[in-house]
Amino acid sequence: MGRDETKITLRQLEIFLAAVEHRSFAKAARQLGLTASAVSMQMQNLGSELGVPLFEKDGRSIRPTAIATAVLPYAERMTATLNEAVEVVRGLQGEMDNRVRVAMVSTARNFGPHLVQAFQQTHPDTEVHVSIHNRRGVIAALENRQIDIALMGRTPRRVEVEAHRFAAHPYVLVASPKHPLTRFRKIHRSDLVAHKFLVREPGSGTRMVHEHFFQSAELPLPPAQEMDSNANIKQAVMANMGLAFISAHTIALELAAGKLCLLDVKGMPELRDWYVLHPKGAVLGRAAQMFRDFVSQEGPGFMQEFFEALPLPT
User: Fold this and answer.
1) Where is each HTH lysR-type domain found (predicted)?
2) What are the pLDDT digits (tens) for 34-68?
3) Which domains, from first to last, does the chain contain?
């Protein structure tokens, strides 16, 4: 294949990345608004242009070949470069000056929309698009430049970002009012190992707090049931199905209603941080810059006032 003869297109590389991510032509097609046959045909054309097949059958899924795996980082680099070029052009044209795309992790849904509303009250001419995802979803949106700004706890490792801390983020241990541990004070970590816990998926902030709490004391992890959202965990704890580490910023209403109890445990609450961040080197529009600066400057006071009635063990 001569370099001047290549017919590889950026669209083919986008389809290739989606097919690798989903391990399915059908799922890639749904993401891209194409038909599965169109995706398959484009991957055949790309493979023919490279002179090698790019995917193999793997049961009902597909698997990238060794060549496809080798090509993957180059395809990611080329599409990322194109996306950055488009963002630069849009920024220069002023198309993004009054719009900011904000994503927040699901733990932030209890205060994030109120923080956005406070920003819009002082900047009524801006247009704010808000999305809420789990941690993996927010990181993926950062990687793909689908958002401008993110509100999250722990900063991502696989994406270079510029992060500004704007508030402390306390994690606490909660139980049903019916749980026997609510009668005790200054509970030791070792006393908790025998009790059942409810946890989020691996990689989530609350899961990391849970595992660090026991592993840092060289204690075995207690029995645990995995659940896919903080809302489900709260309901299960209220039903006395187990204990859970959870962000204190997600349980104010349940505490006020007497549906949940904070356990008085040595070493808790565990304080993490809230960050407002964006991809390092990203060209931010005027609205995105204003939102970042607003959260950095006004966020600490907002959070203190918003959660001032939250009772935390000392």
Assistant:
1) 8-65
2) 999 999 999 999 999 999 999 999 888 899 999 99
3) 3-91 (1.10.10.10), 96-167+273-306 (3.40.190.10), 169-272 (3.40.190.10)
